[in-house]
Automatic annotation (TrEMBL), chains A, B, C, D:
Keywords: Transferase
Domain of life: Bacteria
Annotated source species: Geosporobacter subterraneus DSM 17957
Keyword Transferase belongs to the record: yes
Ranges for domain DAHP synthase ferredoxin-like: 1-66
Protein name per UniProt: 3-deoxy-D-arabinoheptulosonate-7-phosphate synthase
Record GO biological process: aromatic amino acid family biosynthetic process
Molecular functions (GO terms): aldehyde-lyase activity; transferase activity
PANTHER family registered for this protein in UniProt: PHOSPHO-2-DEHYDRO-3-DEOXYHEPTONATE ALDOLASE (PTHR43018:SF2)
C-alpha cells in the first residue's frame, strides 16, 4: 500500500501516520520530495481500510499494491484448481459445456432438451427452477417442482445438474437436488448468500455481476472460500456498458486476466452476455480460443414458446454446430 | 409494444404473430412498407415477454412503448406519494435529512454523533448494524448489538431510525428495531429480499444499484409494492461509470426523470456516490436544487478512526454548514 | 510515481530500474518487503512514460502520484482564472449564461432568438454555423453565412458570440467572427485543433469528451495552454454511461473536482447532457448550486421546426423561468 | 420509425404530425389505444430528424426502426466488401495481420522490427509517424521523417504500409506515403477528416471511438463512403468501461454484429485494447475465432526502450508464437 500525502502535509502528521501503520504490523518507508511525500507500506495490508487513512485531510490518496484477495490468488496457490463434479473435472485444461433451457418449464420440455444436449456432447445440464426476473409479473420458475424434474433428467441422462440458488430461504431445497449451486449476477454481492454457499460442500458457479470489477468478482469468490468451500467456478457473462446492440458486453479480456491472478476455473456464458442466439456460436468459439475452461449455453427446441429468454436460446441443430466448432478449437488451445 | 419484422419476413409469419398477439388481448395494427413491416400493439403489454417474440427468426426487434411498471408509475397515480415515518413526511415537497455514521461502532460513538446531527437539524438517524462489505476481512457491523444502540439513540433524540437489512435471515430482527428498512445498492435486485420487504408494513428506503437503469430501479420498487407495501422511498447513490476520480458518478438527472415517471419520493446519498467528504456539501446543494426530497449523509466526529467509509464522512461542523446551505436552497425550490 | 515490482523480481533488475529513474532526474526510495518491492519516485515525473517502465516484465504496475498537467493545475496557480470576453468575466464567482439556438438557421430565426435571450438576461449568444453531425445526411450548418448572421445579432444585442470551430480548414474564418472558440466534445482530443486554438488569442470553450476522464479533459486544456493561450473555459456536458433515459449522464461531481484540482472556470451544458428540454431547468439549478461558473443553454422559439436538437431546446418563456431560478440560487452560493 | 404519443395527446395534434410525416414522403399508419397512440412510419426515414419530432410536447418518444446508414449496410450490399492493398486482400475470408512498432523511432528500430514481423508472416507494416498523445509533453512522432523511413521499410520488405493521419494539415503528406490511411479512435468523429479521407482513393482503416456505439461507428464509415471512397476497413480496439484492469474492454461481440449489419471488413487491435502485452496473444486467438478479418499488432524488439506504448508491445518471439496460433485457428473458422 502506498500513501501519498498532500503537498503541504505537516511533518508531524506524516510521522503520526507512519507510526500508526507500523503499529498495524507494516514496515513503512518514507520518501520525501520537495512537493510531496510518499509512504510505502510493506507487509500484509489486506486488513487495513484505505478509507480510514484517506479520511485524514492531509492524505492525497491511498494506492493499493497488493490484491485484496488471498485464497483466490494465484500468488499463494500457483497451480490451477480443478473442481470435480460427478465424473467431470472443471479447470486444469478440461473444457466443460453446461447446456439446457433457461428455465425448467415442464417435464416434456426438460426431457426433450436434456436428451438433445446430451446427444450433442454437453457435459452438464443447466435449467432454472427459481428464476430471478426483473419484473414481478414475469414467470418466476416452477420452484421445487422444477428441481424434481432436473433430478429426473439427471437420472436418465447421467448429466450432473447446475441450477440457480436465489436466497437463503430456498437454499437447502436447492442444495438437496443440485450438483452445482449457481449464484447469479445480481446476487454476486449478496454476502449472506455467499457465506451460506461457503459453508456448503457443493461446488459453486459464481457469475460476475453486471458492473463488478474483476477484483470485486474475486473478492466474492474469496467470501465463499473464506467460509471453507474451495470449489468455486467463476463465470463471465457480460458487463454493462453504453453499447445497446448486445444486451451486455462480453468481457473476454477477463479470462486471461483471471487466469493470471487466480487459480480458479472460469467459464463463459455467451447466451446471457449477448441476448441473441445468432451471436452465441461465434462468441463460444472466441471464449474457448481465449482460454476459458468451458461454456454455459441456453438451448431450447422451441425458443419462440420459451417462458424466458427465448431470444438467446439456440435451437438443437445450432447447438450441435457449436459443439463441433468448440471441440476443434479446444483441440488447438 | 412495436414489433419490427425482418425485411424478408414471409406474410404468413407476420399474420401468425399478429394473431398470437391478439390472442393475448392486444389490438394489433400492421404497417406494411416496401422493405419492412411493423406491428403496433395496443393494450396491456406488460405481461408479454419481448424475448419470446424476439426468438422468432423473422423478427428484427421488439420495441417497448409502455413502461413495464404500473404501481410505481405516475400514469396511474398522478399525485406524489408521501411516506410517513414517525412525525416526519417524506415526499410531497418536504425535505428530509437522514444523517449519522456509516456503521454503528460503539455506544459512545453513536450517541455522540446522534446528538450532533440532531442539534444541526437532521430529521432521522442513519447507522449500519449489518454492513455489506466487499471484503470478508472487513468489519461486518455489530449486528443486533448495533440495533440496540440505535434504539437507544432514538429514545434519547427522538429521531426515527434508518438501517440496512441485508438478508432474509436477519430481516425480522432488523424489522423489530428500525423505522425504515434500507435495502442497499447491491441488493436492489435481491428479489427474495424485495418480496419480504413488500410483505412488511415498514417503509423501505430502496437504493439504486450501481449499474441499474432507472427502469430497473422502478421495477424493483414495483416488486415491493406488488406485495402490498406502498411506502417506498427511492435513493439515488451514484452509478458506476468509467470515471474513477469519484467512487461513483452521482446521476442527478435521475431525479427529474423519476419525478416525471413515478410518484415515489426520492432522496440522494452524496456520501456513497462520491466517496470523498469534500464533495458532499456541493452535491447536497445540487441534489436539493434539482428537486430531491431529501438527503442521507454520513457524519463522524472522528472519521480517521471510523471502522468504515471514513473518507466520505463529514465532520460535525461541516455537516452544520451543509444543513445551513441545504435549507436556504430548499426554501427557493 | 510508484513502481511496484513483481514478487520474484531479481535484485539486479530492481537496481537497474532505480538507476535509470535516477538518471532521469528523480529521487528514488526503495521499500523492500518479503513478497514485493516498491520504488517511490520523487521529482518531476511528468515526462516519464509509465508505459515504458511497465514494459519491463518484472514490473507489476506503475502508479502515478502527481497529476500529469501543470499549467491547468491549481497547485501551481492557486487563484481562479478569470477569462474576459467583451465586458463579461467568466470564472472567479461570476455566473455567465450563454444562450441561443443549436444551429443558426436563418436571419429571422437567429435575430428572434437573440432578442429573446437578451431580454431574459443571457450574457452571450450561442449558435452553430459549422455543425458536427453523426449523420452525413443531416443539416451541416450554414457555414460562413451563419457566422455573418451571428455578427449581425451581436451588433444589435451587444452580446459576445460563442460558436464551434470544427477543423483547421475553417479555423481562420470562425476565428474572424467569434468571441469564444467552442471546441466540441467529439474534438476534445483532436490535438491538431487544440494546438491551433492554443496559438490563437481568442478564449476557448472546451467541452468534455463523451468518455473523457477528468484528467484527460484537463490534459486537453493543457494542450491549448502549452501553446500560449491561457484563456480556457471548461464545459461539462454529460458523459456516456449505460443509462439511456437521458442522452448522456451529466456529471455534476466533476465541477467540485475540477474546482479543487484546477484554476480554470467551468460551465455546464444541460441541453446536450440530457437531450430533453424538460430536464434543462432542474439541472441548470443544480449546476449553479454545485458551483459551476455558468451555463450554456439551447433556446428556440419553434423547437418543433428546429433543424437540429429541437428536443432539447427551451421555449422562450421556459428560458425566462430558468434565468429567474438560476439567479436566485446564484445569489446563495 | 415509430412515434409514440403521450397518453393525453389531442387528436388534432396526432393528425397534424401524421400529415407532416406524409408530406416528408412516408406512409403513416395510426394505431390508437385507450391510453396511447402510435404512429408507424414506413419509407426512407433516414433524413427525418427524430429530435425535431421529439420537440413536440405531445410526443412521448421516437423509436427508430431502420439503421441510419445505407452505403455501409448489408441490406443494400449483401456480399462482403474486399479491400485490395497491393497484393493483399482484406475481407471476404482472408486473414490479414498488420504489425510493427507503435511509433517509428529511428531507421534502425523500424528496419529491425519490419524484418522481424515480415519473417514471422505479417502482411503489412504498421508504424506511427504522427502520434496522437494525451499529453502535450509526450513524444509526438517523427513526422515526415518517419514516413520516409516507412517507405524505406516497404521498399525492402515489400509490405504495404498503414500509418495514422491525424489532421487536414498533414493529410496530403501522409497520403503521399501510405497504402492505408489510419484514422484513430479519437478522430472517429472528426467529420472534416472523414470527409477528406472520403475524397481520397486510398483505403481507410477506421478505428472505433472509445465510447462509440456500433451504429455511430458505421455512421462514420458512411461519412467516408458518402464522399466516394468505398474502401473502408473497420477496426475494433476496445471501448471504455468501468473495468480498469485492462486499458479498455475489447468488444469482440461487435465483430459478429458488424458482420451481420454491414459488408465492410473488420479487424481487431488487441494491443491498444488491453494495454498489456501478455494479453495480446489470447485475445488475438479469440478475435480470429469470432470471425475478424485480421489483426493489427504492436511489436517492438526492445519494448522497455520504446518511446510509446512499450507495455503493450510484443517481443519478436512472442509475435512469432501469436502468428502460429492465429494461423491454426484461421484454418478452422
Amino acid at each position: 500500500m502506498v500513501i501519498v500525502m498532500k503537498s503541504k502535509a505537516p511533518k508531524e502528521e506524516i510521522e503520526r501516520i507512519k507510526k500508526k501503520m507500523e503499529s498495524l504490523g507494516c514496515q513503512v518507508q518514507l520518501t520525501e520530495g520537495e512537493n510531496q511525500s510518499i509512504l510505502g507500506l510493506i507487509g500484509d495490508t489486506r486488513k487495513i481500510d484505505p478509507s480510514q487513512i484517506q479520511a485524514n485531510e492531509h492524505v492525497e490518496k491511498v494506492l493499493r499494491v497488493q490484491h485484496p484477495f488471498k485464497l483466490a490468488s494465484r500468488m499463494f496457490h500457483p497451480e490451477d484448481t480443478i473442481v470435480k463434479v460427478g465424473n467431470q473435472q472443471i479447470g486444469g485444461g478440461n473444457i466443460v459445456v453446461m447446456a439446457g433451457p433457461c428455465a425448467v418449464e415442464s417435464e416434456e420440455q426438460l426431457m426433450t432438451i436434456a436428451r438433445i444436449v446430451k446427444e450433442h456432447g454437453a457435459h452438464m445440464l443447466r435449467g432454472g427452477a427459481f428464476k430471478p426476473r426483473t419484473s414481478p409479473y414475469s414467470f418466476q420458475g416452477l420452484g421445487e417442482e422444477g428441481l424434481k424434474l432436473l433430478r429426473k433428467a439427471k437420472e436418465e441422462t447421467g448429466m450432473p445438474i447446475v441450477t440457480e440458488v436465489m436466497c437463503l430461504e430456498t437454499f437447502d431445497v436447492v442444495a438437496e437436488y443440485t450438483d452445482i449451486l449457481q449464484i447469479g449476477a445480481r446476487n454476486m454481492q449478496n454476502f449472506a448468500l455467499l457465506k451460506k454457499a461457503g459453508k456448503s460442500k457443493i461446488p459453486v458457479l459464481l457469475k460476475r455481476g453486471l458492473s463488478a470489477t474483476i477484483e470485486e468478482f474475486l473478492m466474492s469468490a474469496e467470501y465463499i472460500m473464506s467460509e471453507g468451500n474451495p470449489n468455486v467456478i467463476l463465470c463471465e457473462r457480460g458487463i454493462r456498458t453504453f453499447e445497446t446492440y448486445t444486451r451486455n458486453t462480453l468481457d473476454l479480456s477477463a479470462i486471461p486476466v483471471i487466469k493470471e491472478v487466480s487459480h480458479l476455473p472460469i467459464i463463459v456464458d455467451p447466451s446471457h452476455a449477448t441476448g441473441k442466439w445468432a451471436m452465441v456460436e461465434p462468441l463460444s468459439r472466441a471464449a474457448i480460443a481465449v482460454g476459458a475452461d468451458g461454456l454455459i449455453i441456453e438451448v431450447h427446441h422451441q425458443p419462440e414458446l420459451a417462458l424466458s429468454d427465448g431470444a438467446q436460446s439456440l435451437k438443437p441443430e445450432k447447438f450441435g454446430k457449436l459443439m463441433h466448432a468448440v471441440k476443434r478449437i479446444a483441440a488447438l488451445v
